[in-house]
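Quick start: load a record and inspect it. Here is Ribosome maturation factor RimP:
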Amino acid sequence: MNKENKSKLEALLEKVANERDLEICGLNIQTNQNPVVIEITIRKTNGDDISLDDCALFNTPASDEIEKSNLLNCSYVLEISSQGVSDELTSERDFKTFKGFPVNVELNQKNSKIKILNGLLYEKSKDYLAINIKGKIKKIPFDEVLKISLCTLKD
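Running the structure step on this input writes:
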């Protein structure tokens, strides 16, 4: 598929998405596959989570528009997905959902170096973040925290 047709396809899919309060945040066309694979990543314009139903409801009109456009004259597989969960914890909902999960906490040190602590998310308050590091609870003031991310627990 040439760049011009890819741009036309992207514009077509964005129109379908906009009509459903969605936006395209990723389009990957794998022409080296047989059949061609069209991967579309969507998100809601209002920031709400994407459900499986949202993906399914976008699939049919997207497929219909691709067929009507005649931009592809070969068989293809259409895959619709969401961005998934971000590794970085930012909202109150994230902290409640992932309590007990392994996290990396990036700290800003006084000497301008970054220190990373690894433990289980224990508690978040207005003033501090608490993580469980090998059975000991460490309270970290939020003014020292740069970033909190989900991870795999290290020994």
